[in-house]
Amino acid sequence: MRQTTCILLGVPVQDGTGRLGCDMGPSAYRAAGIGPALQSLGHTVIDRGNLVPAPRRDLTHANPALHGLPEIVAWTEALSQTVYETGAQGLTIVLGGDHSLAAGTLAGHARRASEDGRKLFVLWLDAHPDLHTLETTESGHLHGVPMGYALGLPGFAGTFPPLAAALDPSRVCMMGLRSVDAAERRILAGSGVHVHDMRAIDENGVGVLLRRFLDIVEAQDGILHVSLDVDFLDPDIAPGVGTTVPGGATFREAHLIMEMLHDSGRVASLDLVELNPFLDDRGRTARLMVDLTASLMGRSVLDRPTRSY
Ligand code: MG
Ligand code: MG
Questions:
Q1: pTM value?
Q2: In the chain, count of helices (H) and strands (E)?
């Protein structure tokens, strides 16, 4: 098995969502044993503790619906610089925190990849594309905009930090979508993003769809960032999230994805986002997310422990 230096970075941001509780996410992952799980697979684990946001600046925007803009910009500034640095030291695993943190991780990893002359691909596992701009979001919750920002959609200049490198939409694959707003549908159409909604998963199976994308990554000698939103999973197995949408990925679908990602050897960074321990059922969702991370890092079906819930 490949042994890797894993850098854990807690990002207790919750200003991007309308419900409180995501700030407890990093603690829940640690309590669920993410460090020991990775160590037991032979990896070196460096826990960098929790990130502190950059100083908050007064920022306003013409869209009156926006919530927490100065806070999210402050997190984005700090996180994008931090993962740019940790990306040179090992495989960065961000313990979120709501999905607004992806604005920082995608920007930072894209900058690192572009300086290293590597092609960065993104696998986005989420019920939602999070592809709004600051103008199109109606809820105003900024966990709905990070992909829009990272792809370089218009309207972020002057508030969010300038992008050193934007993502190439043809190198982004979204799986598990089942809640897409009209504005996001318009942006997705013709964007070049690979989109596999839950129906596509039902009809083809996750293995076939993921294989197709991994073939592209391998053909271009790319590196892969994985963004795993808890709501990618079915709420029956992962209740600890504020944005449950029925009909999500099953236990085996999610593990198969992680096992195939491990086999590919292409994953360079991972975000675990939207876990809300306040809504969880005795740590069940946190443990599942840790188990999925272990699968991604090399745990096989044969060495999964028997456990009673
Ligand atoms: Mg999301
Ligand atoms: Mg989501």
A1: 0.97
A2: 10, 8
Asked whether residue 57 is assigned to any structural domain, the reply reads yes
Task: Please check whether residue 103 lies inside any domain of the structure.
Answer: yes
Q: Whole-angstrom Cα distance, residue 176 to residue 257? A: 12
Quick check: is 197 in a domain? yes
Number of domains making up the chain: 1
What are 47's strand-pairing partners? Answer: 8
Please check whether residue 309 lies inside any domain of the structure: no
Ligand nearest to the CA of 233: 2
Does residue 109 have an active-site annotation?
no
Active site residue 215: no
Q: pLDDT tens-digit profile of 160-174?
A: 999 999 999 999 999
Q: What whole-number distance in Å separates Cα of residue 269 and Cα of residue 223?
A: 9
Identify the residue whose tokens are 């969702």. Answer: 285
Q: Which domain holds residue 22?
A: 5-302
Provide the percentage of residues in the chain whose pLDDT is more than 70: 98
Written as six digits, the tokens of 229 are 């939103």
